[in-house]
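Thanks for the sequence, V.! I ran Elongation factor 4 right away. Repeating your input here for the record:
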Amino acid sequence: MQEKYIRNFAIISHIDHGKSTLSDRLMELTGTVSKREMAPQLLDSLSVEQAHGVTVKSRTVQLQYRAKDGQNYRLNLIDTPGHVDFAYEVSKSLAATDGVLLLVDATQGVQAQTVANWRLAHDLGLPMIPVINKVDSAQADVDRVYDELMALDSTLLSKTIYQVSAKTGQGVPELLEGIVKELPSPKGDSNRPLKALVYDSEYDAYLGVITQIRVVDGQLNAGQTLRFMATNKSFQPKEVGVYRPDRTKTNQLSAGEVGYVVTGLKEPKFVKIGDTLTSASKGCQEAVSGFQERQPVVYAGIFPKDDYLSLKEALLKIELNDSALTIAEEHSAALGPGFRVGFLGVFHLQIIQERLASEYGIEVIVTAPNVSYQVRQVQEKEAITVTNPAEFPSFEKIESVEEPIVLGIIDTPGDYLDAVMKLAERYRGTFADLVDQAGGVRLSYRLPLAEIAYDFFNQLKSITHGYASLQTKAIGFEESDLVKVDVQVNYAKVDALAFVTHRSKAAALTQKVVHELKMTIPRRLYPMPVQALVEGKVLARVDVPPLRKNAAVNGEQRSVSKKQALLRRQNVNKRSAAHLDIVLPQEVFNALLSLNE
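Predicted structure:
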């Protein structure tokens, strides 16, 4: 099909504003899916997406639409996530599109991720069609939402703002016409050498790696030999096609089209998200520009309960279509062999844990998340990067510790300014700037990444009722007075429970952690001490109560000799158990997460 009859677009919005439902209506009205096959949130195919009611993975579907001018158009729709932890999925989608639908809930208005996703699209220079959804609701306030959109972007004043109900289909036919008329066609040249952006991928046990691509220039034929530019890996594609919404085989993909390539490769390491796909011979010389890989924000240890090799295979397959993950092997004295995995946030971590259970049947132990640190030692010239607190050098060898700092840009209505500033200062933020803007103010704070990686965004949404947005930009590392907290259970160090915190918070946090662990560590027949140490000194201690009373304090009248004999036996048990031989359940590690709430 000629490029002028192709439209590539994404739907962006805040979480739960109706993206997936609107996608359903677009597929239904264009006849892409029959009424018999239609189901709610059809593009949310992962079980975790259906369980949480949120989109986690971007999905592509090709719509065939006959416009009022009598011309057939090919609309390539990419459904995107709305949760802040999956903003990377949005950025991947936008790299493959030529325009977006900016969707806003008529009952909720412009909210945090509305602003953040608008900014992503605005910075890329993508044309936007504003859409107000759920206008059929009794709580809808279209006039207020209209004013909020104008305050967000005054250029929308010159555009048509479509009012739709994705649930009933009201206004969606008019929106389809607007997509054809107002969004641009892709700009490319089918006569140039093949250049295609790999913006996503997945793994199939029989077909191998399946890449999702946007063809920028040239033509991709099923019979030609292809090459990934970054890894220099050549292959003969097994199949080429498009999503409607299932994979549909075609013979060719031309410039401007979005589709998939079944590579047949069984090793995920050869496929990198953001790579450029070209012909093995006479291919393009320059890679596709404008796509940036996302770096992990938090790290956590993932350890198998049973099969290490199955966990390794599952993580590598998930990494293939979730390129924000970074995976490295590690070993814990308490939990055995496992992996240190990087995530975009705590919700991202939760989703991966649930995918391991639902898609691969693997139960895992997940340690508390942490960030990476730069540690400079006394007798070493160069600093080392530490992503696992258990690998921190001994405190007497440390000269200084640097933690990652980000510039947090918070857009909030003026009514919440005082509450937001107090929140930022509570998380060790340093004020940088304040600018008045339409609809509110923009605050800039220097924030330690370790402080905001857990629940800062949730707290921000709570105090601003969802109206504030957060953008972070890495500044670098900055020296700080940080200490490592070691945790001992029955006098045995548990490396998986170690964490790093600021010295000013150490006393309060250690008291809290030992009391949390007291309630979650499995009991024995004798009391077990739980201690938190900083620089070799015990700052907090509690005893995990025994399953039965201690003979020394049972208050019963017994012969002294029998009581002494019982005490001696208990003492022997304690000494023989001075190494960690208990199994730590997931609840133990969840106790550390509660420290940041």
